[in-house]
Amino acid sequence: MDRDNVETGAVDALHHEPVMLAEVLAYLDPQPGKTIVDATLGGGGHAHAICERLGPTGRLIGLEQDADALARARRRLHGFPVTYVHENFRHLDNIISHLDLGSVDGYFFDLGVSSFQLDTPERGFSFRFDAPLDMRMDTRMPDTAEDLINRMTESELMHIFLESGYGRWARRLAKAVTTSRQLSPITTTATFAALIAATIPGHHHSKIHPATKAFQALRIAVNDEIAALHAALIAATHHSNVAARIVVLSYHSLEDGETKRTFQYLAGRRPPPSNPYDPEPPALPQLLSVLTKKPLIPSPEEIRRNPRSRSAKLRAAERL
């Protein structure tokens, strides 16, 4: 899925450029006849290039929790041997077992929100449009962003705002949200964005709207994205052939941090818990070799050509 974690202008969701495509293919190394799982199909940009490498004897398993994105991917990948699964990758363990695949030769994750989702007002991901606060990537989920923003405690709100980089303003923003919703529920993207802009000073001097980080944080909470990523990386490792590659593209520090920690854990190291109140995870035998000591980032040429790629980070590991 071709992702961005900032507000952008409208793009053609069927034809925009997949982020870091050359690097993804180099680390994923899809070969003819192999089986690859694309856990985030999106518009099918990366998947199309992977399918070309797999050839007619290969197989792509395409997961996508967003029904609209899945429909677009079906159109773009028509004619390729793809098995489509309308599901969140948090259920990867059950999906692989149900499909009776045995083991897989590679996994690709392209995290975050897509340009198509940002550019669809009614989905509620973007503050560029006045729309209901939804933010569910899978509209079958019960809780919307509106539900969470009006239900979370001040402490919970402060925690997610701190993780998103608001620093000393996190407490003030959490207090502003809880005070405002006592007068009237926060129900739209415009209301939430205006509240943030009124709370965070000096935003008119920045190129980035102060609501950007809060919208990201709320979306991640609505979709429980970090826990889902951890579960999926564990499952991918256990359902991998020897030398299978796992490649992750992330666009947010929380996503990249969780990828790094989980890879370290699966590589036999004992990383610090993601939450100071969590117990220290037990050590595992070494299941993965981490191929990227530091995350790869797009080249300056790609960023100039495709500004949506500027926050991307790629990490990769290999099954031992």
Give an account of the 3D structure:
This protein has helices at about 20-30, 45-55, 65-75, 90-100, 115-120, 145-150, 155-165, 170-185, 190-200, 210-220, 225-240, 255-265, 300-305, and strands at about 35-40, 60-65, 80-85, 105-110, 240-250, 290, 315-320. By secondary structure, the chain is α/β, with parallel strands linked by helices. The chain folds into 2 domains: about 20-115 and about 225-320, Rossmann fold, CATH 3.40.50; about 140-220, Putative methyltransferase TM0872, insert domain (DNA polymerase, domain 1). It has a 7-stranded mixed sheet with strand order 3-2-1-4-5-7-6, with helices on both faces. α3 (about 65-75) links the parallel β2 and β3 (about 80-85).
Average pLDDT confidence is 88
How large a portion of the residues is in β-strands, by DSSP E? 5-15%
Radius of gyration: 20 Å
**Structural class given helices, strands, pairing?**
alpha/beta
CATH C-level category of the largest domain: Alpha Beta
β-strand number:
7
Give the % helix. Answer: 25-40%
End-to-end C-alpha gap: 27 Å
Spell the H/E element sequence.
HEHEHEHEHHHHHHHEHEHE
CATH architecture of the largest domain: 3-Layer(aba) Sandwich
Gross geometry: globular
Largest sheet: 7 strands, mixed
CATH topology of the largest domain: Rossmann fold
Number of domains: 2
